[in-house]
Amino acid sequence: MRAAANAMAGGELMLLVIDAPSLGAQLRDHKSHTPPMLLALERIVTASFENVDLPLKVRVIPVFNKADLVRKPEHRTEIENTVTTFATRLFSDLQSGLWLSSHTESGISELLETIEANLPAGNPGELFESDTLTDQATRTIAAEYIREQCFLQLGDELPYSTAVEIETFDESDPALTRIQATIFVEKESQKGMVIGSGAKKIKAIGTKSRERIEALIERKAFLGLKVKVSANWAGKSALVERFGYGEVSL
């Protein structure tokens, strides 16, 4: 939560991404109470900003994902009104919400345009040189490439509590970079999902990740992957920071 708090405190714009069909279901199940999804958001904000008065002074755009699963206008209106009423108590500059579907790719262009329109113009070279791709270490990007492929190859089978740790990143051979990485999940059943029947899933994850890493480092790479279970790692601050999701200095 410290990382989220730092990001909100130092950022120009925040996207509040809502799983629209899940929230809709919670609204139907908790008609006279605040949906659990929104209560969780409130707990995160209040716990992260104990000494700061609400609403937070940050511009927020609600983004309602999985729009293809919420088609009735009255259902969308109910979801939008609920989020707007609730989020206004937490954030001082709440913008109009956007609907998008990563499945059908609808709304993505509008979201990108809205983000650009809501960000202040910067001066070229003010923070980084013009040819700087990122301020993240190469091994950090490699871990994100592997995590990305976990979701692309497994889809909705795998929960978001999946982490990747780069154990070795050996560049001593100019012709071949050797990388060993571990994919962490929270349950034994999830381990089998990542490996797949006949190890097909883990092979696909490794192949696609290696191709992206090779394009990044501009040389051949060997990528070895292991899958381990670390029960409830997302709830343990030491592991959250170890896997690179801890406090960020801004």
Order of helices and strands: HEHHEHEEHHEEHHEH
Give the rounded overall mean pLDDT. Answer: 85
For this structure, the quaternary state is: single chain
* Helix/strand class: alpha/beta
Count of spatially separate domains? 2
* CATH 4th-level superfamily of the largest domain: P-loop containing nucleotide triphosphate hydrolases
Q: How many strands, what sense, and barrel or not for the largest sheet?
A: 4 strands, parallel
Low-confidence stretches: none
Distance between the termini: 14 Å
CATH level-two architecture of the largest domain: 3-Layer(aba) Sandwich
Overview of the molecule:
It contains 9 helices and 7 strands. With 250 residues, the protein is of the alpha/beta class. The chain folds into 2 domains: 2-118, 3-Layer(aba) Sandwich (Rossmann fold), CATH 3.40.50; 138-242, GMP Synthetase, Chain A, domain 3 (2-Layer Sandwich), CATH 3.30.300. The strands form 2 sheets. Strands 1, 2, 3 and 4 form a 4-stranded parallel β-sheet that branches. A 3-stranded mixed β-sheet has the order 5-6-7. A hairpin with a 2-residue loop joins strand 5 and strand 6 (176-185). Helix 2 (20-29) crosses helix 4 (73-87) and helix 6 (138-154) runs antiparallel to helix 8. It starts with a helix and ends in an 8-residue tail after the last helix. The mean pLDDT is 85.
